Amino acid sequence: MNSQAAAGGVLTIDLGALADNWRNLKARLKPGAELASVVKADGYGLGSEQVAAALAKAGCSSFFVARLDEGIRLRKALCKGERIFVLDGVLGGTASEFFHHDLIPVLNEPGQIKEWTAKADGKAKAALHVDTGMNRLGLSLAEFEALAPALDGAGLCLLMSHLACAEERENPKNAQQLERFNQMRRLLPPLPASLSNSSGVFLGADYHFDLVRAGVALYGVNPTPGQPNPMAQVVQLQGKIVQVRDVDLPETVGYGATHKVAGRVRIATVAVGYADGWPRSLSNRGFGVLNGVRVPLVGRVSMDLITFDVTGVPEGTVHPGAFVTLLGEGALVDEAADAAGTIGYEILTNLGPRYFRRFVGG
Ligand SMILES: *Cc1c(COP(=O)(O)O)cnc(C)c1O
């Protein structure tokens, strides 16, 4: 049995579009700036090993993950001397793992710096995270001022911070963080610097520094919300129709009887549910595309199934085994996210393990 036939949904990941997105972003950077790829959370849910290999082939030589475990797995997939930064940094007792797997910790707080300088003794590289207004990870200005004179032994290769509102071009917080970052940079001898995520690319060259850490835009999510998406769509998700039925007044569809049919309609039941990461908040709000026709998701999203009103689709084309496109064919990740009351990041990272995954364009 081929697993495409056995699965309820097919997730197609276009590695060619991913590589195009990397080149697109890279071309927008100021000359000499490096474009690193953020492949945390299994490459935003798409498969970090395949994604990172495709990006490395496109020319990317620095990668960021969140967890040490993700870094260890990624090192096995790359193993060619690409730099792998671990955003969590060196949590207690893990320094030797960084040496062993050739990973670079992002040191976030004084305890991590202490641990690293004691264990690495200047022989291994680390990045330093300073906080410029996010108040999540990184040294505060006061901590940084106190520690800056003693950072010689940390083997620093990058000074970084993170923007809180980069996707809001007009937000004054961006300029405030930029200024604080420049102020903090001056407290250390010259060191390569990094401030921006995907959206930061579009804030202008002042935000690019030596390295940009792009994540979501590589995967096709719009880094400039409210404006046309400059990125190519990477993900296509298709759900398989399990059953088609005609329903007439006064019937209802799904749990809670939340959808009352308005007359005689045709309902297609598709083998994707919230257990596959298709948000329950899309109940009576989502849509799919069937043979080029947009079809509304009606009734509640259940664990394994969703139901579409396919009355508007030419007969004959709607049958068990046919696919309803949930992402792709003009159905954008951002659009599904908006309808679900979330962001594209969450739609992608929730894409579940039950899909048959297909990588194309690699
Ligand atoms: C996740 C993350 C990124 C990537 O952000 P995108 O908005 O996906 O481009 C960059 N830097 C840090 C510190 C992150 O945590």
The CATH architecture classification of the largest domain is: Alpha-Beta Barrel
Tell me the domain tally: 2
State the share of residues found in helices, binned by percent: 25-40%
Low-confidence stretches: none
Overall residue-averaged pLDDT value: 96
Quickly give the structural class: alpha/beta
Structural summary, described in words:
- The structure is a single chain.
- With 362 residues, this protein is of the alpha/beta class.
- The chain has two domains: 15-219, TIM Barrel (Alpha-Beta Barrel); 235-331, Lyase, Ornithine Decarboxylase, Chain A, domain 1, CATH 2.40.37.10.
- Helices cover 27% and strands 23% of the residues.
- It has eleven helices and 18 strands.
- It has helices at 3-6, 15-28, 40-44, 48-58, 68-78, 95-100, 110-120, 141-147, 172-185, 333-340, 344-350; strands spanning 9-14, 34-38, 62-65, 83-86, 104-107, 126-129, 156-160, 193-194, 211-214, 235-247, 252-253, 259-260, 265-270, 287-290, 293-298, 306-309, 323-327, 356-360.
- The strands form three sheets. Strands 1, 10, 13, 14, 15, 16, 17 and 18 form an eight-stranded mixed β-sheet that branches. It has an eight-stranded parallel β-sheet with strand order 8-7-6-5-4-3-2-9.
- Strand 4, helix 6 and strand 5 form a beta-alpha-beta unit.
- Helix 2 crosses helix 4 (48-58), helix 4 (48-58) packs across helix 5 (68-78) and helix 10 (333-340) crosses helix 11 (344-350).
- The chain is elongated.
- It starts with a helix and ends with a strand.
- The mean pLDDT is 96.
- The site of pyridoxal-5'-phosphate has 11 residues, from strand 9.
